[in-house]
Amino acid sequence: MSIDGDFEVDDFGDIIDQNLFKLAKKNNKKENFDWENDDIEENIKDRLAKGTVMIRAYLDLSSLWSMVVSLIYLTCFIAIFFLLDYLFYIEDSNGTRSPKRKRFVNRLKNIVSKSYSDAALIVRNSSDTKRLAKLIFEYLRPSDEAKFLTLNDFIPFFSNQDQAQRAFNIFDVDRNGDISKFEIINIIISIYKEKDDIEKSMRDSGLALKKLNLIMKFLSIIIIGLIGMAMLTEGYSIVMISLGTVWASTLFAISGIITMLKILFSYSFLIHLMLEIESKLVEMLYMLQNLVL
C-alpha cells in the first residue's frame, strides 16, 4: 500500500488470493478436505485399496476358485489348530486335558508312585478307616483290660525311641500322654476325609479346566473363520488378518498359561498335602505290619 492511501497492484493481488483461499476452504469444509495432508491421505487410501500381491491375485479369481482357495486356507488353519492342540495337550485318566510336559509329569508321577505303598490300598472308604483304627489299637494295647495307650506301648515296635515318639504324637492330639481308641479313630477318619476332600477339589478343578479349554477352542475357531472371511474383503483385510492372528495366538498363550498354573498349584499344594497325609497313613500301616509280624 502506498503512503497516500492508494492500493498497489501487488497488495490487491495478495488480498484476492487470500480471500479466494479462505472461500475455497470454507466451501470444502463439509467434505473434510485437508489442503495440507491431501496427498498423504490419497496415498494411504491407494495402498489400502490395492492390498498385498496375494490379496490382489485372490480378488482376480473367479467366484468358484475363490471359494476353493478360501476352503483350503480354512482347512489349513483348522488343521494347524488341532495339530497344536494335540502336541501341547494330553488327556489324563480322569478325562481332563492338561499341557503335555512329559518330563515334568513323569517326574511327579514317579514321586507320587514312590510315596505310595501297596498297604495304602487297605483304606478305601470310611469303614476301612474305622477297621484300621481298631486294629491298630488292638495290636498296640498290652492287655485286653487296657483302655489307653502310652508311649511305652509304642517303643517295642520301633527301632528307636524317636520313631516311636513321632508315631505316638500323631494320635496324641490333646497331648495328655495317653491315647484312647476314639482318638485313633478320629485321627484316621479326619485324615481320610481330608484326603477325600482334596481329591474332590482336584476333580472339580479338572472339570472347570476342561470347560475352559472348550471355550478357548470355540473362540479360536471363530477367529479362524473371521480370518478366512477377511480375505474376501478389500482395504482393511491386512489389518483384520494381523489382528486376528495376534488374537488367536494370545488365546493359545492364555490357555496354556492358565492350564500350567492350575497344574503347578495342584502339584505344589494339593499333591504335596496328599503326600503328607499318605505318609502318615503309611507310617500307621507299617507299624501295623510290624505288629502283625
Automatic annotation (TrEMBL):
PROSITE patterns in UniProt: EF_HAND_1, EF_HAND_2
Transmembrane portions of the chain: 64-90, 212-232, 238-265
Gene3D superfamilies named among the record's database cross-references: EF-hand
Gene Ontology biological process terms in this record: intracellular calcium ion homeostasis
Domain of life: Eukaryota
InterPro entries named in the record: EF-hand-dom_pair (IPR011992), EF_Hand_1_Ca_BS (IPR018247), EF_hand_dom (IPR002048)
Molecular-function annotations in GO: calcium channel activity; calcium ion binding
Stretches of the chain forming a coiled coil according to its record: none
Annotated keywords: Calcium, Membrane, Transmembrane, Transmembrane helix
Span of domain EF-hand: 159-194
Name of the protein this chain belongs to: EF-hand domain-containing protein
Organism annotation: Neocallimastix californiae
